[in-house]
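Table S5 (text form). Sequence records supplied for joint modeling of the two-component complex.
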Amino acid sequence: MGNNYCVIMAGGVGSRFWPFSTDECPKQFLDFLGTGRSLLQMTVDRLEGIVEKKNILIVTNKRYKGKVLEQLPGIDERQILTEPIRRNTAPCIAYATYKIFKEDKTANIIVLPSDHLITNTDEFRRIVTEGLRFVSLNDALLTLGIKPTRPETGYGYIQFGEGGGAVKKVKTFTEKPNLEMAKVFLASGEFCWNSGMFIWNVQTIVKALQMELTEISDVFANGMTIYGTNEEQEWIDKMFPTVQSISIDYGVMEKAQNVYVMLADFGWSDLGTWSSLYDLTPHDAEGNATAKGKGVFYGGGNNMAVVGEGETVVADGLEGYLVAHNNGIILICKKDDEKRLKEIVNEQTK
Amino acid sequence: MGNNYCVIMAGGVGSRFWPFSTDECPKQFLDFLGTGRSLLQMTVDRLEGIVEKKNILIVTNKRYKGKVLEQLPGIDERQILTEPIRRNTAPCIAYATYKIFKEDKTANIIVLPSDHLITNTDEFRRIVTEGLRFVSLNDALLTLGIKPTRPETGYGYIQFGEGGGAVKKVKTFTEKPNLEMAKVFLASGEFCWNSGMFIWNVQTIVKALQMELTEISDVFANGMTIYGTNEEQEWIDKMFPTVQSISIDYGVMEKAQNVYVMLADFGWSDLGTWSSLYDLTPHDAEGNATAKGKGVFYGGGNNMAVVGEGETVVADGLEGYLVAHNNGIILICKKDDEKRLKEIVNEQTK
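The corresponding structure-token record, covering 700 residues in total, follows.
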């Protein structure tokens, strides 16, 4: 069995959690639940006992390099791979893959988003350990699929087929379904949520990249003489913008033949919306929740407070509202109306 | 004509404007409209050209002495009269009256609350100057009455009788009326709002105190040998709690025979409620107002933002709400429901 590596994708931008997330400080750098650790920090913490710290690579945008270094004092600058521009997940993964391949031809690799929440760390470690063992023995591209608990329309689904244990052969990847379809998926028992977390041996992913995304693969394979030298960043800055922008799901996973899914149930959320944060936060009898700070809601329910540490929201007569305070902005809006919220945030941040 | 003096009553407590006003920092010390000057500071500013700074006395509770000194750097410590406990307005005025009487037997005195708002300073000065002239020539207890613009139920009213000019003889003082009664008052043209501002010569008020509130008057008259000495505070601390707690309106104005009212119209509000602050704040077409900070209200009207300088409220779908942020508290409540607000504030500040 080779050494374990982890590639953490931390290049995400966006202001869906404005006024908390901004272009200057995207979601992965935020301490969402007031625990004192950002989502990125928790992602690294979760790897303890599975991946040695020196084998963790963080891929991020150039502008966030300082933030990553600041939040992860145990991570060396050389472990941070910086993209000059965004090119979706496949180039990011290809770059990291060949970097690791140069160093260790037998590496087993976990690829993780940096901005998801996982509440059951022990179960995460158990699943990942089992997955790493599987890919060290099998020429398989393994993805982690989350057991669905509701007909969620915000996630992609994976349909799986035969396989006796936790690992199943993948039949199809699906786009985000409508509610009708999601209900059918849920009822069938053949679908799980696509978490965007992958486990594979470096040989397997190199082969898959060469097969399915040859052009991208060739570029980053060419870099192997340069990785680890003083020219690396300059070379990446030049080459990265030339490659196709494409996701690893669409470019590799949906096309390769050796794709498997491992069913997992470790309290996962991609934290894609305020509602998903609400779902994860304990509620009182009226459905009011406090993710950060303190919320006191009179005469109304299903509200959520996400304010500063030591701050208190005192609200009367609100129903289904989000009250968020950060960076001089107090946002008060219906927490489930994503479309409306997007309009407002776009207007306020333009 | 004697010298002009002013007594500013700055002992008020209360948390009606919580989370801005608190027991530690009552309303008079707040910069309500984001002008950079507190209500107390504006009260002093307004006297320029009418009363010399050295002739201004501030009566306040002991605990606020430091705050007064801090906010009024031009005021000497000896000009601050500190009450050990609250005893309503009559003892406060009696104490200040005999202090002034010791110093100047012909003084003309204006008595002002420290927590009212007046928007037309020129007109205030014109009225007060005229009032001072009137009381220097007449043995009259003069009160300033505000020309009513609406059937307000939050104020006391004064019914006035004959008198050709701006000064009218007072017929009766009334308690806060119900709406029916307030409408009748307004329609009659014989009533004005009781502003709680008084003008009189020191001889006149000393005589009235001796006549109507003999016990209180005797106590503070006895202090005349002590005022200005090192024993003053100790003596006040001992004597103040022994006197009756009573308002000057009830104790003197409603009983004396020589009570007059001068009609004034200088943009006055006692700022008794959030609604009264809203009324004074410019509104946009939807009735949304920002008293402090910035308010952006989507899909709803008649809201008011009172937040920190440089802060912005971004709210969707609120109607008739107050959003206030201060001291770690974000208050979101119907701005016109005083009763509800009081319950909430009581519960939150107990």
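Note: The longest helix of chain B spans residues 121-137.
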